[in-house]
Amino acid sequence: MTDGWNWRRPPTASSVPGGHEPPPSGSPWWTDALQDPWRDPRAPAAVVLPPPPPSGGPALDPVPDPDARGRSYAPVLLICLLTALLAGGIGGTLGFVFAVRGGYVGNVGAPLGAGGQQTPQSVDRAPESLAGVAQRVQPSVVTVHVTGAIGSGFVVSADGYVITNDHVVDGAGESMSVSFSDGSTAGAKLVGRAPESDIAVIKVAKSGLPAVQFGDSDTIAVGDSVLAFGSPLALENTVTYGIVSALDRTIEAGESGGTTRYYAAIQTDAAVNQGNSGGPLVDAGGRVIGVNSVIRSVGGNETEAGNIGLAFAIPINQAKRIAQDIVDTGKARRTVIGAEVSSGGSGSGGAKLRSVEPAGPAAAAGLKAGDVLTKLDGHPLQDGTDLIALVRKHAPGATVAVEYRRGAKNSSASVTLASVTN
């Protein structure tokens, strides 16, 4: 018995052992059927030959499968048809429901556009959603164009006042321009600056502008959702999302030989890059809680700096107070404690006072040169940067509690902060 891969011509009668004659020509059976060791011994030995084909040539119909039973395919086809209709109906219904819930259904009855495609329609989002917040805030955000540079800002009054960073307008002169999210542009003029607080105010030559809504930066918490608006890397109308990563993160920044700026900042992991400076950081309700100002980067220089998930914003309560001073008087007040601190740490934590002004707030509270302040208003102090940044966060006239160390003795006092004008 063979599977066909090594087929040979059947032997002749003279070569078959036992002398059996081969079957007639055209037999479909092998020649040694009676000697086949795998033959069923109970099966008859008769060989039945098929009838000869009718005259006119062999039949072209395929040979029917001898094992196949006669059956009707109508029930199978009916089941397949019903299954396909049911699956299509369910899929279409679910797709429509998900589209409606996701807000993707526009004007269903709108006429078709070119090519048989429905004309795209603007879609609305729930006001409390992130997309709804972005739609509401974006018209109040501007891109600030100065000579050779781009920054960001946001409208705070209908008559055109805009808050931005001082380092955005540094060297810009008296005039500049801004562009809005709708593509329109307008000229702008510098109103005033607070270099050490990194806040500036400009006035746009346009009225009837949509102003932002202010939040309260003293009530936010780590983990709150935030959106950062601006023009990072000159990509206007950009919105990024993140959370508040830390509060009162004290930072000392500035170029060598230039103004040194101190921040008690809101830290966020929202993506912020060059060009975001001066743009608003808003909470999940669309209220501005900070001014994007600084990033921390692993880049070796300013041109290589990029977002690594560490960005910092000036609290809006501080920025709003300084901006109001600028609008009212053209200048800003800076909050002080009436003492100078030693550079670097004190060796055991705290901000060491190098000198105390005789008539200043620190002296009035009983503090002396050499005292090491360890806490201000409950916030631990590690060095002089912490003290300066946290003092400037408070408004002039605020009374804060301080804890300090004098020699081996720990004491506390209340200090009423004062101000100087930049």
From TrEMBL:
Residues 1-67 are annotated as: Disordered. It comes from the Bacteria. Residues 49-65 have a biased composition (Pro residues). GO terms for molecular function: serine-type endopeptidase activity. Belongs to the peptidase S1C family. Residues 326-383 form the PDZ domain. GO terms for biological process: proteolysis. Keywords: Hydrolase, Membrane, Protease, Transmembrane, Transmembrane helix. It comes from Actinoplanes teichomyceticus. This is Putative serine protease PepD. PANTHER family: SERINE PROTEASE FAMILY S1C HTRA-RELATED (PTHR22939), SERINE PROTEASE HTRA2, MITOCHONDRIAL (PTHR22939:SF129). PROSITE patterns: PDZ. The chain crosses the membrane at residues 76-100.
